[in-house]
Amino acid sequence: MKKSMLGVIDATMLPGEMAELAGHRSPAAIPFAGRYRLIDFVLSNMVNSGIQSVAIFPRSPYRSLMDHLGSGKDWDLNRKRDGLFFFPAPAKEGQFSRLAEHLDYFNRSDQKYVIVSNCTTVANMDFGPTLDRFIKQDCDLLEVTHNGEPANIYLLSLELLLTLIENRHETGYQSVQSVFEDQSSSLKKCQYEFEGFLKRIKSVSDYYQTSMELLQKDKWSELFNEFQPIYTKVKDEPPTNYLEGSHVTNAMIANGCIIEGEVNHSIVFRAVTIGKESSVKNSIIMQKSKIGSNCTLEHVILDKDVSVEDGTVLRGTAEKPLVVKKGSIESAVASS
Amino acid sequence: MAKQKCVAMLLAGGKGSRLKELTESLAKPAVPFGGKYRIIDFPLSNCANSGIHTVGVLTQYQPLVLNSYIGIGSAWDLDRKNGGVTVLPPYSESSEVKWYSGTASAIYQNLNYIKQYDPEYVLILSGDHIYKMNYDTMLDYHIDKQADVTISVIEVPWDEASRFGIMNTDEEYNVTRFDEKPEKPESNLASMGIYIFKWSVLRKYLEMDESNPDSSNDFGKDVIPAMLADELKLIAYPFKGYWKDVGTVKSLWEANMDLLDNDQDLNLFEHSWRIYSVNPNQPPQIIGTEAKIKHSLVNEGCVIDGEIEQSVMFQGVEVEAAAVVKECVVMPNARIGKGSYIERAIVMNELEVPENTIIHNHSDDILLITEEYLAEHERRQSRVEEA
C-alpha cells in the first residue's frame, strides 16, 4: 500500500530571509546538521515511507542541488522502474503551472496518492500513518501540521492533483496550499498533527536556532535514529582527527576534520580545520572551511570554503549570527 | 570482454588466526582498521587510484562479510561495465570441490578469469597489508626493466628481517635468491607480497606448478624459486613509505596508533590518494558537555561523553560519562559503560562494557576485550573481593 504514493518536492522556494545562505544555491541545498542538505530530510522521509518515485521541481540556481542528488543512488532511488526525477521548469509562477510542464510524469505514474512537500522542512517522519489516516477518514486533501501550524506537506490522490492542474485556469488555484486554504472549497479536508521534532527553515534565524537546538541530545535523537536514517550524498572523508591540545565539548562534528583548538556548543561540517589556540563558540562551520590559529569565533555561520586567517576575531550575536559568504577570506586586519 | 593491459588478482582468503577472535567470523582482509576502513580498502583503493579497474578478489575463509562488503565494487568506483571487481570463490570441478591450497593454486584455478581479458600483465596482491602505493608506477618500472617478474620490496630493520620473505639482489636490484624467513638474513629487502608478472610467463609457470605433485602451490616457496632456477629476469622494486602487516592483535593495534602519529607517511587526509570504503551513513559525532578528547581519531555516529586519549573510535561507539579510554582501538558499535577505565586494548565490535569495569594494562601486550574476557575479568574481580 505504501508503494502507492508518489513524492513531489517543490524546491522552487525563493530564498527570502535565507538569502545570505542561499545566494548561490537553492534553499533545498543549504548544508545542515554537519553533513546533510535541507532536502535530505524530506527526501529520506519519502524513501523511508516506501515511496519509490520522487519528482523534484527546482528553481535556478540548481547546480549544487543537482550535484548533491546525482542519480539518487545515495537514497536508493537509482531504479530501473521509477526512481528520482528532476524537472526544471521555465520560470513560471504558480506550483500547478510548473507541474503542468511535466504532466507526462503524472500521467505515466500508476501510484494512487501523492505527497506534495516543500524542500526545507526538517523532521524524521514516516508518511505511512498519514496515508492510513487519509484513507480511513476518506479525505480529499490532507495537511500535515505541527503544533497546529501547517508544515506545508500535503497528501491527495493523483487523480485530484491531475484535475487541479488541468483546471488551474478556471479555478484560479495556484498550488495545493491555496486549495487547502480556500474555505469555500467543497473538498473534504483533513489535518494530521505530527508530534515529533519538526522545524520549517525559512530564515537565517530559523536555521541558526534549529541547528543550535540539535545540540540538545533529546532533540537530536528525535531527528536521527537507526531505523529511519537520514540519507545524504556520501563522501570518503577519514575519521576526524583530534590533535593534542584540542578541547571539544557539546558539539556535533562531521568526519574529515582536523581540530587543534577549542570548540564549544557548535556544529562543524566535513573537512574543516581549526588551528591552535583558536576558539569556536555557538557557531556553525560549513565544510572545508579553514580556521587558522589564535582566532575567536562566536555566533558565526561560516559558509563553505571560508578561510579565516590567524588571529582573526569574528562575532555575531545569538539573535543575529554573523554569516560569512562561501569562499571568502577573513583576515585579522579586515575584521578589526 | 575488451582487452585489459593489466589485471589485478587480490588474494583475500587469509584466515589471520593470530588475530584471534577478531577473525572468528570474518576473513583477515575484512578486519576493521583506522576508525572506518577494512584492511582490503587499502589494496582496492590503491587499484582504483592507480587506474587498474579490473580486479579479481579471491575469497575462501569466512567470506560472508567480505562478499557483502565488496558488493559490486561501487565504493571504490570499481563497478564497471568492462572489468570492475569480481569476487572469485573456490568452485567445484566435475567431481570434487577444489579449495585453494596455496596462493599459486588460487590463481591457477582462476586462469579462465584472467584469460577473458587477454592482459599483458598480471598484478598479484594480498589483502593483509596497510599501505598506499601506485601500482601503475611499479608497472612502468616492470616494463622499463623488461622483467619477467617484478617483486615489490621494502627495507626492514635487520633484526626483524628473519620474520619476512627476503630477496637477495645485486646492485641493479636483480633478484638472485629468495629466502623465506631466513635465520641468518643476507639482505633486509622484504617481499611485500606484491608481484607483477608477464601474463605469458605466469600462465606457463602456474601450469607447471600445478602438475608438480611435490609443490605446496605457493608463490614465495614454489613459483618464484622455479623461475629463479630457470634464470628468468626477476627484479625487485624498492618501495619507500608506510607498509605494515597487521597479522597480530599487537601489530593491528600498532598500525592504528601509527595513524595518530602525524610524522609517519600514512596520511588518510591526502586528497589525491583517497582511501575509499563503504560508508555506513551515520549522523555526525556527538560530543557531550563533559567530554575530553585528546590525540584521537573519531568516526561518525559516535557519542562521546567520557574521556578519550590516544585512541581510534569506529562508527557508532558510545563512551559514557566518566569513562576513560586510553590507547585503545574501539571497534564499531561498542559501548563503554559509565565510570569504566580501559587502557592499551582493542575492544571488540558490538561489545557492551558494563559500568565501572576497570581494566589496567601495564604489560607490553595488547588486550583483546571480548565477551569472554569480560566474564573472566568479572570472575577474577569477585575472587579478589572475597579474599
TrEMBL record, chain A:
The Nucleotidyl transferase domain, residue ranges: 23-145
Keyword Ribosomal protein: no
Identification of the protein by name: Glucose-1-phosphate adenylyltransferase
Residue ranges occupied by any Glucose-1-phosphate adenylyltransferase/Bifunctional protein GlmU-like C-terminal hexapeptide domain in the UniProt entry: 246-314
Regions crossing the membrane: none
GO biological process: glycogen biosynthetic process
Source organism of the structure: Domibacillus enclensis
Superkingdom of source: Bacteria
Automatic annotation (TrEMBL), chain B:
Role noted for this protein: Involved in the biosynthesis of ADP-glucose, a building block required for the elongation reactions to produce glycogen. Catalyzes the reaction between ATP and alpha-D-glucose 1-phosphate (G1P) to produce pyrophosphate and ADP-Glc.
Domain of life of the source: Bacteria
Name of this chain's protein: Glucose-1-phosphate adenylyltransferase
UniProt enzyme class: transferase
Catalytic activity: alpha-D-glucose 1-phosphate + ATP + H(+) = ADP-alpha-D-glucose + diphosphate
Residues carrying the site annotation Could play a key role in the communication between the regulatory and the substrate sites: Q60, W99
Homology family: Belongs to the bacterial/plant glucose-1-phosphate adenylyltransferase family.
Pathway this chain belongs to: Glycan biosynthesis; glycogen biosynthesis
Gene3D superfamilies reported for this sequence: Hexapeptide repeat proteins (2.160.10.10), Spore Coat Polysaccharide Biosynthesis Protein SpsA, Chain A (3.90.550.10)
Alphabetical list of PROSITE patterns matching this protein: ADP_GLC_PYROPHOSPH_1, ADP_GLC_PYROPHOSPH_2, ADP_GLC_PYROPHOSPH_3
GO biological process per UniProt: glycogen biosynthetic process
Enzyme Commission number(s) of this protein: 2.7.7.27
Pfam families assigned: Hexapep_GlmU, NTP_transferase
Keywords, sorted A to Z: ATP-binding, Carbohydrate metabolism, Glycogen biosynthesis, Glycogen metabolism, Nucleotide-binding, Nucleotidyltransferase, Transferase
Domain named Nucleotidyl transferase: residues: 8-261
Subunit annotation: Homotetramer.
Phylogenetic placement of the source organism: Bacteria, Bacillati, Bacillota, Bacilli, Bacillales
Domain Glucose-1-phosphate adenylyltransferase/Bifunctional protein GlmU-like C-terminal hexapeptide stretches: 289-359
Alphabetical list of SUPFAM superfamilies matching this protein: Nucleotide-diphospho-sugar transferases, Trimeric LpxA-like enzymes
Binding site for alpha-D-glucose 1-phosphate: Y100, G165, E180, K181, S191
Recorded GO MF terms: ATP binding; glucose-1-phosphate adenylyltransferase activity
